[in-house]
Amino acid sequence: MSRKGNCIDNSPMESFFGILKQEMYYGVPLRTYEELKKDIEAYIQYYNNKRIKQKLAGMSPVQYRLHASQLAA
User: What Pfam families does the annotation carry (predicted)?
Assistant: First the structure.
């Protein structure tokens, strides 16, 4: 995240946090800090490497970046 009040840089992070809460947090019983930390780290790995997005042509963010860099080369 960038400096305070910079909405252009903060909007992708706010979107990510909203998706994270929807997909892994709401409706789940409370956990310890350590369990929550472990679950968030696992979710970030899932989000970046496995979760496909229609906006990215059905690829995960990492797959899309690799594909785009191959096209540019």
Answer: rve_2 (PF13333)
Question: Residues 20, 46: contact at Cβ < 8 Å?
Answer: no
| Mean pLDDT for back-to-back runs of 10 residues, the chain (73 residues) | 68 86 87 93 92 89 90 80
Task: Report residue 69 as tokens.
Answer: 């860099």
1 part of a folded domain = no
Average pLDDT value over all residues in the chain: 86
36 within 8 A of 44, measured Cβ to Cβ: no
Quote the domain boundaries for residue 32: 7-72
**CA-to-CA distance for 52 and 57, rounded, in angstroms?**
8
> What does the radius of gyration of the chain's CA atoms come to, in whole angstroms?
15
Tokens for 45? 């790995």
Query: How far is Cα 54 from Cα 59, in angstroms, rounded to an integer?
Result: 7
Residue 2 falls within a domain, yes or no?
A: no
